Amino acid sequence: MADIARPALRADAARNRDAIIAAARPVFAEHGLNGPLDEIARRAGVGNATLYRHFPTREELVQAALLGPMAEYLAAAEDGLADPDPWAGFRDYLLRLCQLQARDRGLADLLVTTIRTPSGELERVRGAAFELSQQLITRAQDAGQLRADFRHQDLPLLLMANAGLVQRTQGGAPDSWRRVAAFILDGLQARAATPAPPPPSERAVLRVMAAGRTVGRHADGHPGS
User: What angle do CA 154, 100, 18 make, to 5 degrees?
Assistant: First the structure.
């Protein structure tokens, strides 16, 4: 009987883990990466101890729950490069990222935040999307369409600005990001460029992204490990 019981327990554990991930996605989408873990456990129908057992740190839960949305980030870059028009590919890529941020606050946070443990499939997807985004930028600049002084570290700065706008306007003017993005894109075209201040260094932007990440403790004070 003991041999029969063990697989059932494993199946229960797998169901609990899947339920936690499924519950985490909308909670993070609604509240951002600091969404309440108590609420995730409640929606998953499990106790807090079960959640902590499966995901000792918030970062581990974020990586499991947001892999799907991050795949859309990669798909946006792939679609941009598939467009034969370099400017249209870059433009539509940036607009799609802004739209993803408006739809999902968790993804809005994640696109401008580094993960404490940079391993696993999520970070592989992020890295692949980053490489493609660099190609999108270079291709549009080589075509003389994107202003020459735009740097890849400027992209997370734009997304940080959009994330803040989305958060502030979500309740009353949720489509405001579209108007602001249109203004930004006009300013990014080479024909409209005027001299800009120097960009921050890549290291400085990474420091900012690291400062925005969730800490290795659960939101209710439980240690993350």
Answer: 120
